[in-house]
Amino acid sequence: MSALLLPALVLGPLAAGAVAAVVPRERGRVRAAVGLTTAALTALACAVVVGGVATAPGHEVRVALAGWEPPLGIVLRADAASAALLVLTTLVGVAVSVTVAVRDDAGGGPAFWPLWLGLWAALHGVYVTQDLFNAYVLLELVTVGAVSLVALGKGRSAGPALRYLFVAVVGSLLFLLAIALVYAEAGTLDMSAAAGRVAPGPLLTAALALTLVGMGAKMALFPLHSWLPVAHPAAPAAVSAVLSALVVKAALVVLWRFWVALAPAAGGAAHVLAVASGVAGSAAVLWGGLMALRQRRLKRIVAYSTVTQVGYLALVLPLMAPGGEAARAAWSGGLLLVVAHGLAKAAMFLAAGVLTAAYGSDHLEDLRGAMRHRPWVVAALGVAGVSLAGLPPTLGFAAKWQLLAAGVESGQWWWVAALLAGGLLTVGYTAVVLRAVSAPADAGEQAPEPPPAAVPTVQAAVPLALAVAAVVLSVLAGGLAGLVADTAPRGLA
Amino acid sequence: MTLWVLALGLPLAVALLLMVATLVSGPRAGALRDTVCRAAWLATLPAATLTLTGGDEVVRLDWLLLGVSAHLDEVARPLLALTVVLYAVALAFVPRSGARRGPVLSGFLLVCFAASVGVVAAADVVTFYLAFTVMSFTGYALVLHDRTAGARRAARIYMVMTVLGESAVLAAMALVTADGGLVLADAPAAVAASERRDLIVALLLVGFGVKAGTAPLHVWLPLAHSAAPTPASAVLSGVMVKAGLVGWLRFLPLGQDASPGWGTTFVLLALLGGFLAVVAGLLQDNPKVILAYSTISQMGFLAVLVGVALAEPGLAHACVLAAVVYAVHHGVTKASLFLGVQVWSSERVPRWTTTTVLAVAGLSLAGAPFTSGYVAKYGAKEAVGDATFPAAGGAALADVLPWFGLGSTLLLARCAVVLWRRERKGEHSAPVRDGVWAASAVVAVVPVAWLAQRLDPPQAVPGWLSPGTLWAQSWPVLLGVALALAAARLARRRELDDSPLAHPRGDVVPPGDVVAVEERAALAVGRALRRAAARLGSVTGRVRTALAATPSPLPALSAVQARLGLWEASGAVLLFLAAAGLLLALTGGSSP
Amino acid sequence: MNPDAQVHESVLPVVMLLTSLVPGLVIFFLREDQVRLRTTLNMAGAVAKVALVAVLVPLVVAGQVQRAAFPWLPGVELVLTADTFSLFFAALSSLLWLVTTVYAIGYLEGAPHRSRFFGFFSLCVTATVGIALAGNLLTFLFFYEMLTLVTYPLVAHRGTRAALDGARTYLAYTLGGGVLVLLGVVWLTVLVGPVEFTAGGAAAVAELAAERPGTATAIGLVLLAGLGVKAAIFPLHRWLPVAMVAPAPVSALLHAVAVVKAGVYGIVRVVHDVFGLRVFADLGLLHVLAVAAGVTIVYGSLRALTQDDLKKRLAYSTVSQLSYVTLGAALLSPVATAGALTHIFHQGIMKITLFFCAGLFAEVLGLSKVSQLAGVARRMPLTAIAFTVAAFGMIGLPPLAGFVSKWPLALGGLDAGEPWVLAVLLTSTLLNAAYFLPVIHTLWVRPPEEGARWVTEPHRVRSIEAPASLLVPALITAALTLACGVFAGWDYSPWQIARIIAEGSYP
Amino acid sequence: MTRLELLLALGCAVLVVGLVAHLLARDLVRRVVALNVASAGVMIVLLVLATRGTEPDPVAQALVLTGIVIMAAITGLALALVRRVEAPEDEEAP
């Protein structure tokens, strides 16, 4: 049954997007209704698929589209990793859909729905695809959707959108070249099939390097991160949540799958590239954290926080390199971190959106007194910050624990140091936000706190729901980690 | 067992009742306070029955503190009797004696009584230390009772010295217990056997020396006695000072292997304290201060006995018992003298009766024949036996002791003169307690003689009529009286009228003589501590500000970010990375 | 945990956590004006927890250990065990939480943000009891970090600039410590597998120390440094005086029981139940810890001398008194260990009394400086008595609780062949006297200054000197100080239970 | 060098030229054009690969077709955005 649902997961939202596009622009309510129903149906489908993956013997559900087996046909395969990502996408997707349905300018106007549903379909596709070129096409679809959504933002959002488009496309071109090289050597586009047919050599190393740089550009890894702090804040509230929580992960997943499939065969060169990714990740953790401490605008702080967390995710590559127990811990830790970060970041951006809508701007000086008028939104910010920092009792702590265990097991102390320093920096900028938001009483004589504009309670409650999900899910962390750990890709060098 | 709980519990319960009554304001509470205060001395009765009927087995109360145990041995029983009698009489003297806030004074006296019983009867280190500390700190409250400026200064000095003494005692107790001396019976053996022996004896000397008023540590005594209300100073001099002696008798390695070094130190300090106290006492004009100096000199006498016991293990047992008899004698006599000062100045008792009673007490203190002093001093002289004092050219201690008698006779003459000149405003009359006071002073010789008789084998009992002993005991007294008369006629000559020496008003040598020096030293130490703490604070403060002032890298970072953020720059970085990757592929690709 | 105890799988430890977690979460959602509901919830939680402890104590002393385990990540699980030592600390926390809740309700009468305060207050106790009941290092770390997070809003509760600065310093120090403990725990768990607290030290850790002493020492140092922050050991203690900006009930509960004791409890657990005393001594870490504690004892007392602000003086006194426990735990003698464990309990009740009294002086008369306290005993005799009893206790005078824990420490020092311990204890006792007796002298003896505002006010504003909900807790804990001292011989007194626990770590 | 390697190098060269021009051009339209050139480079590489075997490889051909279609869509989106971007300097990072 879940095998049938896999293609439905990808094509369903796409069809709904088309229906939403057909509905005339003025009838916003109808579009929202289509969006919400799709969200509900997708959630159900995801639940079934995840259930299927959990119960299936090899913890994976596999379907060849229209019966065509590779090398000609395209295979969709949902394993434990994609199950985790599906859970994340569902939760964030439903939250975003509800937020925009309740308050449509959070999504940047009626055009939001078709683009968002298309993006959602593409994301599902990226998680479950096994075929390289299919991944390229879906990544392009994600990019087009995301860039258009950014362009919906008020004010000058076209510039940042354009810049985001350029960087993303350049990244994709490099990835396409890498696919061409792999196809040249392996003759097939299916990742698991290609893994067996590639031999260590300049071609494979070039492919790995190009993919690393290309995906690094698309997911804003440290030296190539400058477009993210410009693009994400420019987008409408709900969109920046989607961007930071989900879109960044699409590129990451493709990188991880590509790496896990092809890196073992590349030997020493893959190790050097992994260390390069580690160094870039550590630099991202420190740079993002320090820059976040400097910012005076809430959305920009949250954007730099994404740069930090992407740094963490890039650390997973070197941690997986030695293989064995450390690799399994790193792989499950990485995926837990993806889910934890997704939930927490979505909560933070939605909360930032609520505050910006209430107070008219996201400058920290203007947000004084938010603690008194909007305690629940501030609570969401706080809990999300705690989860990002990886402190108990949140899911982030479980992820950080696994990554630290992998680091210590494989004796790579510099990544362990980066992980710990990142945690402290995260708490640092969360404390800066919390302090700015809780107006110091004796500074009362400055400008009296501005009366907040009315914000629908549902929109205020969604961020807290996501943040609490980040805490509650930590209870399930054991199950998720267990599921993921024993399906860790075998044969890591 | 219940007798012990009653003996300690009843005084504490009555004290608590008095405290609560003072806290609650209102007429009914006032009446309750006065009646309880008047009947307060009854609280000492259980302890009295305990002394008479109590068996000498060790009594244990395991649930109290860390396991409390008490034991009435040959040292404890007489001192316990002394404590009971003195506290009963003192408590009787508190109501209608013009002392302000009587009930509070009675309350503290009762707590002090319970603590004194504890000190004397303790059988293990923890109980002893518990009782000793409670007694010291309630002593502070007694000294402070009148809350005058003088009382506050005396109390402050008392507190500082007590805290120093306390910490020395605590250290000694810990060291003794660590070496296996938890039960007092085997403490001296443990101390003798321990390798830190000298340190322990030194700590004992200092710790209990503060309480027993040995030479340099005696400064608080004259101030405290003059500041405290008279019943309190009677108890202070009579019993609390003896706690120092009990400490020495319990812990010092008396009768173990000889330690001549420490023996001579004790005797030297004792003699120094004994004779200098007489000189300082003569220059005072407050009777209570003179009596305080007399206490210091008499405690010197006891310290000599302890010194001899330390130096000559053979004589140890005799000296200990002699010290106990002497302590009982001194306690009763000194307390009656102190209370006599109160009777003289504020009781409506005929002049001649008070003078005779005071005269008898004075003579007894000086050791005249047919008095308790005669018995105690004789016993002490015999106990010292042929012990010599090597430092002073081998002079036999036995012939040094009588000079103490001379000293106290002079002091008492001085006190009599000063008291005689003081006018009497007899506004209170409590015939019963005055009667008891007079009886206890005059009849003191009987119990002391009986006690000496019971401890006969080691304790020498003087033949009442043998001419030799009579003369040996009385020549110091006669010489003292003669000297006093000569000094008195000399002082009446006109040209000496205003000389401070002839008519001292206590300004040449202020009470507590060297205290001014020690006070300044203590203040200097306090200031140094505060300065050190302040400097420590500022140093850590400076370190912190230096750390905070380090230029944070953030501005530089954001400048780099601004430049890196430009389109061209990030594009260049992208190209550079792609090129580096390809270069790696071409060169390192083949390496395994 | 005594080695011969039979382990029972039971849900009691979880219920103990829920008794404060559930009220806490519910209180968060209450409106400000639902005072009665909030008070009943608070009190119900507190009373239930104390009752549970009372039920568990005889059971556990008899040797039946209650255990509850939950799988968390593959190969690692969260374990809650109620053995003697954990119950000892849980009893202290729940008892003082009950008293402090009453005090806090009275203290915050009519203050803003009370729901938020009591919510975090209950979460704080949940974390403390969680630390007490932690069965292995991971669970301990779990609640150790949670404690930092829930106490940050309490310290910053007043919302003034000073409060926020204080809270920030507090957060920086405690989180730094938390990161170190996380590193230590991960390192140990990776090398040796999940480490359960076993009396006398875990065997696996002993093996590790034997094969790779270098790594074991490094892990030990990292753990000690991390725990040292919360145990306020010398260079890491600065957050404690700074966090005095918190309201009185917070500084009472946090700096007498919850936060500081978590650090010290952690140290004792790591030294005794993870490494084991013998192994720790062989690694040479025991001596390092003892010296650090000694330095802190003297430093804390010295700094307390110069503080005119009463709460700052009490804070530095806490810094010094806490290191008694660390010193005791770092000495190779059962007497010292028993003394250290008792001091955890006694220092808690004595220090909380002092903070209650400081809060009373500040709340009723608005006096926060020691110099302003001249003659206050005339106006507030009961508070002054409570303060005096606790202060004498802190100095270590016999009939009170302080002596019962300081005396075995002195003996233990000599027994372990470290005579300098006796010297440190003595200097500290003298310094304690030097900074507590002047306060008592000022309270009782010095006449009040003429200008003092409280002198001119009508003398008897209320029937008794302060609101009952503030005064009664202070008197209760003062009476407890006296009782723990006088009845130290009783079977279930802290001293006796501490001795039972201490025997456990000398197999 | 065989014909195949020569053509591969040509494709890569076109890609590099396109990327460098794209990254250095200031005018947005020129950037979009440069991007298309870079995409053409990659398509050349793919086409060359398609010719390796005896007869042309259908899969590679399909890749090229899809790539071209995608590039067209992206160019359309880019040009729309360029038109909305009024002044070119606003897209510099602050």
From TrEMBL, chain A:
TM regions (residue ranges): 80-102, 109-127, 133-152, 164-183, 203-222, 234-259, 265-289, 301-321, 333-355, 376-401, 413-437, 458-485
Keyword entries, A-Z: Cell membrane, Membrane, Signal, Transmembrane, Transmembrane helix
Family (UniProt): Belongs to the CPA3 antiporters (TC 2.A.63) subunit D family.
N-terminal signal peptide: 1-20
Protein name: Sodium:proton antiporter
First-listed, main subcellular location of the protein, grouped into a coarse class: membrane
Membrane topology according to the record: Multi-pass membrane protein
GO terms under cellular component: plasma membrane
GO terms of molecular function: NADH dehydrogenase (ubiquinone) activity
Domain NADH:quinone oxidoreductase/Mrp antiporter transmembrane: residue ranges: 130-425
Pfam families referenced in this protein's UniProt entry, alphabetically: Proton_antipo_M
Alphabetical list of InterPro entries matching this protein: CPA3_Na-H_Antiporter_D (IPR050586), NADH_UbQ_OxRdtase (IPR003918), ND/Mrp_TM (IPR001750)
Compartment(s): Cell membrane; Membrane
A GO BP entry: ATP synthesis coupled electron transport
From TrEMBL, chain C:
UniProt main location, coarse: membrane
Xref: InterPro entries: CPA3_Na-H_Antiporter_D, ND/Mrp_TM
Domain NADH:quinone oxidoreductase/Mrp antiporter transmembrane: 134-430
Membrane topology (UniProt): Multi-pass membrane protein
Transmembrane segments: 12-30, 42-65, 85-105, 117-135, 170-195, 215-236, 280-302, 314-336, 348-368, 380-400, 420-445, 466-490
Gene Ontology cellular-component annotations: plasma membrane
Subcellular location: Cell membrane; Membrane
Domain of life of the source: Bacteria
Keywords attached to this entry: Cell membrane, Membrane, Transmembrane, Transmembrane helix
PANTHER family for the chain: NA(+)_H(+) ANTIPORTER SUBUNIT D1 (PTHR42703:SF1), NADH DEHYDROGENASE (PTHR42703)
Family, per entry: Belongs to the CPA3 antiporters (TC 2.A.63) subunit D family.
The protein, known as: Monovalent cation/H+ antiporter subunit D family protein
Organism per entry: Xylanimonas oleitrophica
Lineage of producing organism: Bacteria, Bacillati, Actinomycetota, Actinomycetes, Micrococcales
From TrEMBL, chain D:
Protein name, per record: Multisubunit sodium/proton antiporter MrpC subunit
Top-level taxon: Bacteria
A Pfam family of this chain: Oxidored_q2
Organism: Xylanimonas oleitrophica
Gene3D superfamilies reported in the protein's UniProt record: 1.10.287.3510
Sequence intervals crossing the membrane: 6-25, 32-50, 62-82
Places the protein is found: Membrane
GO cellular component: membrane
Keyword terms, alphabetized: Membrane, Transmembrane, Transmembrane helix
Xref: InterPro entries: NUOK/Mnh_C1-like
Membrane topology qualifier: Multi-pass membrane protein
